[in-house]
Structures are given as C-alpha cells and as structure tokens.
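Quick start: what a row looks like.
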Amino acid sequence: MGDRFERISWDQAIGEIAAKLKEITAQYGPRSFAYMGGGGQGCHFEAAFGVASASGLGSRYHYSPLAQEFSGLFWVNGRMLGRQYIHVETHAAETDLLLVFGWNGMQSHQIPQAPAICSGSPKIPTNS
C-alpha cells in the first residue's frame, strides 16, 4: 500500500472515491470543491458532468478560461452575434486582412502558427 498499485474493481474504486469526497466535505465543507474547465469556447462536453458533480457536493464554484483570456472575445461575440457562446473560427492563412478585438491570437493559441502567418512568411498549411 502506498508504494505500488493494486488492481481493484470499478465498484470498489468509485466507493473509495465517494467516501473520500464525503470525508472532505464533512471536514471542510462544500466550498472546498470547485470545478475548473468547460470554458464555453467549444468541445467541452465534460462541463456538464463537472458542474453537476460539484453541485452534488454542494459547491457552486465553477472556474473557466473565460475569466482569464476569453472574457473580451465572449463579450464581443455577445454584442456582434447576440449570444456569447456563438463564435466564428478564424482562418488567418486565408485572410488578406484580419482585425481582431477582444483577444490576442498571438498569445492565446487560437491561430495555428500565428507568428509565422502574421509576419508575412510563405503560406503555412494549417490543420483547420
């Protein structure tokens, strides 16, 4: 125990995890848990499970990248498109001029190989 892994059943593993979560909640309260993820920028299907799990433990805390790097982008989406969760995809390699408000594609990794594309180097194939 402690220095090796031991194969156990799924039922036992889930039971042990549930017991530990109950213990932590009893000792520190539901505010000791938070869900981090599901930023809303797409492909975050785990968010429903994460938020529901935190809620089931009594926590209302949900943190996401929106508070850090996407808040401006989502605000602009809401103003332009009517809903903050509706957004468009940027195809910088196919664009003659790209004017962006609300986020920095050079830093937030939203444009594949942004420094090379924006510097005017030869066309670079992208995965999009």
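That is the whole record. The beta strands are 35-36, 62-63. The first strand starts at residue 35 and ends at 36.
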